[in-house]
């Protein structure tokens, strides 16, 4: 008579309790995936016996399978806490060794690399010089702390200043005929806009609008930091409207290739070391009108800015890290790359919320978040463990009963053996 069946049952029940205990222990581990113990029956190899004659010799643990189901998402105050909502793994690097994880608790080290608590570096796609994401071989994501250079309002990349203004058709001709920016009786309306020179120094550009005796015609004057342009003169720069209040032409006529209603601004001498004389460029007056309503500004924008320092980082659903700068600009700093596997249960569990690929899992299938079947990313969020504590406690009770029942089998076998020993 054999004790093997009962002993194998005890071992199997103990293994089940170990798996359940590990699940329960990691109920608060971010990105943890619970596991199940799978079992298989055992039969002795024999020749010539039909299946009706075989008696099993116990049970064995056939596999410990992790369950890669989605965990709940919990918000945090760290924008670099990243949760995966869907299939996929973060790709981590440590001195060239690549591992994978679902734990998205990241922060910056002193060199600007995005790392986890084990100092593994998050990898992703780099940024090209023009700011576009370059989907090449993934690299370790490093955020630069250097300032972004300024862009002058006059830079072609900044475009023209854009103004949409309504000038009141009922306004009278000013009482004072000689324009003076300090005398409000010499003009009808004015606007102010901050512009930036080639060093990123901010200046105040003010434009003044004066109704003339010619119907539908308004003269424009400009000052920079309160200094009137040297070429200021009646009729030097003008807007011309038709009888319906629609802008029909500007003076001077725009250069070839410029917008139809674009007027170049004058030049001023600067003393801050920037390019001088300097002009902020042209103002595009498209959508400017002369209706019988109060004069008002509907749009007045320019594309220049001062130098800026990195003040914050955000991560979009598609994994793009965007830096926010002190000059209100933003820049792409990289894109998180995600990996998928044909057989996730073939991954080798390394502990510390890490897996590595194996021949069973297949090679990593890399791509941007949200592409194919890959997860989307939620910033300032972490993925909780997918352990259901209630289920684990119920399974623990079942495993305990299994252990007790197998112990009882051994006890019964022992009693039978004792009966045989006592035969005389």
Automatic annotation (TrEMBL):
Annotated Flagellar basal body rod protein N-terminal domain residues: 6-33
Signal sequence range: none
The Flagellar hook protein FlgE/F/G-like D1 domain, residue ranges: 83-140
Compartments (UniProt record): Bacterial flagellum basal body
Record keywords, A-Z: Bacterial flagellum, Cell projection, Cilium, Flagellum
GO biological process, one term: bacterial-type flagellum-dependent swarming motility
Chief location category: other
Top-level division of the source organism's lineage: Bacteria
Entry annotated with the keyword Magnesium: no
Every Flagellar hook protein FlgE D2 domain range: 166-305
GO cellular component terms attached to this protein's record: bacterial-type flagellum basal body; bacterial-type flagellum hook; cytosol
InterPro entries given in the database record: Falgellar_hook_FlgE_sf (IPR037058), Flag_bb_rod_N (IPR001444), Flagellar_basal_body_rod_CS (IPR019776), Flagellar_FlgE/F/G (IPR020013), Flg_bb/hook_C_dom (IPR010930), FlgE/F/G-like (IPR037925), FlgE_D2 (IPR011491), LlgE_F_G-like_D1 (IPR053967)
Pfam families reported in the protein's UniProt record: Flg_bb_rod, Flg_bbr_C, FlgE_D2, LlgE_F_G_D1
Flagellar basal-body/hook protein C-terminal domain location: 379-423
Similarity-based family: Belongs to the flagella basal body rod proteins family.
Function of the protein: A flexible structure which links the flagellar filament to the drive apparatus in the basal body.
Name listed for the protein in its UniProt record: Flagellar hook protein FlgE
Gene: flgE
């Amino acid at each position: 008579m054999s004790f093997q069946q009962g002993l194998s049952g005890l071992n199997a029940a103990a293994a089940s309790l170990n798996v359940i205990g590990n699940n329960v222990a990691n109920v608060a581990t971010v990105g943890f995936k619970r596991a199940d113990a799978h079992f298989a029956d055992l039969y002795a190899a024999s020749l010539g016996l039909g299946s009706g004659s075989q008696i099993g010799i116990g049970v064995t643990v056939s596999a410990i399978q992790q369950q890669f189901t989605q965990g709940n998402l919990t918000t945090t105050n760290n924008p670099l806490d990243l949760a995966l909502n869907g299939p996929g793994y973060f790709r981590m690097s440590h001195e060239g060794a690549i591992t994978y994880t679902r734990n998205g608790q990241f922060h910056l080290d002193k060199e600007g690399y995005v790392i986890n608590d084990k100092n593994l570096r998050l990898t992703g796609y780099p940024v090209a010089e023009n700011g576009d994401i370059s989907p090449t071989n993934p690299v370790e994501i490093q955020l630069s702390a250097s300032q972004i250079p300024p862009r002058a309002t006059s830079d072609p990349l900044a475009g023209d200043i854009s103004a949409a203004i309504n000038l009141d058709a009922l306004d009278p001709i000013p009482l004072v005929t000689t324009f003076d920016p300090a005398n409000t009786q010499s003009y009808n309306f004015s606007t102010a806009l901050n512009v930036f020179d080639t060093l990123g120094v901010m200046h105040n550009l003010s434009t003044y609008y004066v109704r003339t005796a010619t119907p539908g015609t308004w003269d424009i004057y400009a000052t920079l930091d309160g200094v009137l342009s040297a070429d200021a003169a009646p009729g030097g720069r003008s807007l011309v409207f038709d009888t319906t209040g629609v802008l029909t032409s500007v003076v001077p006529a725009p250069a070839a290739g410029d917008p139809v209603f674009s007027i170049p601004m004058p030049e001023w001498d600067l003393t801050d070391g920037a390019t001088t004389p300097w002009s902020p460029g042209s103002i595009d007056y498209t959508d400017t009108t002369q209706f019988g309503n109060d004069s008002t500004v509907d749009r007045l924008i320019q594309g220049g800015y001062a130098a800026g320092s990195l003040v914050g980082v955000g991560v979009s659903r598609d994994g793009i890290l965007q830096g926010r700068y002190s000059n209100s600009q933003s820049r792409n700093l990289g894109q998180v790359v995600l990996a998928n596997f044909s057989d996730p249960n073939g991954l080798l569990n390394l502990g510390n919320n890490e897996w590595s690929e194996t021949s069973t899992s297949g090679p990593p299938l890399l791509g941007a978040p949200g592409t194919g079947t890959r997860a989307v990313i939620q910033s300032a969020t972490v993925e909780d463990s997918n352990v259901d504590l209630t289920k684990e406690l119920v399974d623990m009770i079942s495993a305990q009963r299994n252990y007790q029942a197998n112990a009882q089998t051994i006890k019964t076998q022992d009693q039978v053996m004792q009966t045989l020993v006592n035969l005389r």
